[in-house]
């Protein structure tokens, strides 16, 4: 497999934007992941506790997976504007205001030009993918935890 085109493209990119260009979306990614996790994990635990209380025993791993899917989908929905801003920052033309990485400025620009629908662009596919991931990851985590304890 010839990797020359990829390495040439990478060197060209680094030549134009510097090493910082490779990490342009790092800060906005972290700023998206913190609130996402602050919503997803407590909601997952709350839903498991509620389900356990309703049925009178600890949830099974498949039930934990269902809770994880719901928690992940909800967290994805409420943090979609941050994900949209992150994507705009990462794809912005080098040297533009958006490429500077200011998340609040990116959100403001999206709000001014596209309104609420722009801030929530792609919410359904994002919720779907993250719900599936939450189902698999958190269900597997719970099953592994039960097997080890």
UniProtKB/TrEMBL annotation:
GO terms for cellular component: membrane. InterPro entries: MCP_dom_sf, MCP_transmembrane. It catalyses: S-adenosyl-L-homocysteine(out) + S-adenosyl-L-methionine(in) = S-adenosyl-L-homocysteine(in) + S-adenosyl-L-methionine(out). It comes from the Eukaryota. Keywords: Membrane, Repeat, Transmembrane, Transmembrane helix, Transport. Solcar repeats lie at residues 1-50, 59-147. Gene3D superfamilies: Mitochondrial carrier domain (1.50.40.10). It holds the Pfam family Mito_carr. It is found in: Membrane. It is a multi-pass membrane protein. Mitochondrial S-adenosyl-L-methionine/S-adenosyl-L-homocysteine antiporter. Mediates the exchange of cytosolic S-adenosyl-L-methionine, the predominant methyl-group donor for macromolecule methylation processes, for mitochondrial S-adenosylhomocysteine(SAH), a by-product of methylation reactions. Belongs to the mitochondrial carrier (TC 2.A.29) family. This is Mitochondrial S-adenosylmethionine carrier protein.
């Amino acid at each position: 497999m010839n990797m020359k085109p990829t390495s040439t493209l990478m060197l060209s990119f680094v030549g134009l934007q510097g090493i910082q260009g490779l990490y342009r979306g790092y800060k906005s990614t972290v700023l998206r992941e913190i609130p996402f996790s602050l919503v997803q994990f407590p909601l997952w635990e709350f839903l498991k506790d509620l389900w356990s209380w309703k049925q009178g025993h600890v949830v099974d791993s498949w039930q934990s997976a269902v809770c994880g899917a719901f928690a992940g989908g909800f967290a994805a929905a409420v943090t979609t504007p941050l994900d949209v801003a992150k994507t705009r920052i990462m794809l912005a033309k080098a040297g533009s205001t958006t490429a500077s990485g200011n998340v609040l400025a990116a959100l403001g620009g999206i709000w001014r030009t596209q309104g609420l629908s722009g801030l929530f662009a792609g919410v359904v596919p994002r919720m779907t993918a993250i719900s599936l991931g939450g189902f698999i990851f958190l269900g597997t985590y719970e099953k592994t935890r039960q097997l080890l304890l």
